Amino acid sequence: MTAAVVAWAAVFAGAGAAVADDGAENAYRYWSFWSWEADDDGWVYAAEGPGTFRPGAGDLVGFRFGVSGERDDRRAPRGEATFPEVCGAEPAEPSMALVLDFGTPEEAPGDAAPPEPRAECVPLAEGATVAEVLAEVAPPLRYDQAGLLCGIAGYPVSGCGEPVDEANAAEDDGEGGGSVGVPLLVGVGAVALLGLAGWARARRRAG
Is the confidence at residue 69, as pLDDT, over 60? Predict the structure, then answer.
């Protein structure tokens, strides 16, 4: 599957974000999964996992690496992306748009340097899930033993949903980072479905 890579470093300016858990003192660092809702003109925290979410032509989905903290303060991928901005007004074939926001230095584990955010226009195979698309355009993916998605495009190289001192998570003052009140475990469970999809896909290839 081919992809047209779009550099979005200028669009995604701003500091890091704390996102919410159930009110505990600790926060957690993980990848969250979002979909762009035209009716709301913004990102919506996905209630369905990428392992089962089957996008249609013209859809836009995103992943954001960040830190969960205060309730009702989850940060979406930064920047106000639209499908035409990523894929053009009339792509040559049915396509979806994928946004990857690797977060900020404040959200990064240790001394890791987050890659630049990026957006890709991906030709859409019939019936493909977001998990399958992600495996094609942003390898390597890294999972833990429970199937939780821990790394996209090799970032970060270690760690997975570890607790973080919330006081060290900077507030997001960049453009576009929406927030919603969804329990942390819902977000973790949604992204974890990627692991199941990746495992099944690997089994099919091996067979």
Answer: no
Name the residue with tokens 């701003």: 14
pLDDT tens for 1-10 read 444 444 343 3
Q: How far is residue 207 from each of residues 188, 193, 203, measured CA to CA in Å?
A: 30, 21, 6
Contacts of 170 (CB under 8 A, 6+ apart): 15, 16, 17, 18, 104, 106, 107
Please give the model's pTM, rounded to 2 decimal places.
0.73
DSSP sequence for 74-141:
--PPSS---HHHHH-SS-SS-EEEEEEE---TTTSSTT--PPPPEEEEEE--TT--HHHHHHHHSPPP
Confidence category of residue 26, pLDDT binned at 50, 70, 90: low
- Alpha-carbon separation of residue 196 from 18, 49, 130, 149, 202 (angstroms): 27, 10, 12, 10, 10
d(CA 48, CA 18): 22
Question: Phi and psi for 155 in degrees, rounded to 5?
Answer: -125, 130
Stretch (H or E) spanning 164: strand 163-165
Given this model, what pLDDT does residue 169 score?
Answer: 53
Determine if the peptide bond prior to 156 is cis (ω within 30°).
Answer: yes
Cβ burial 42-55 (10 Å sphere, 16+ → b, else e): ebebbeebbbebbb
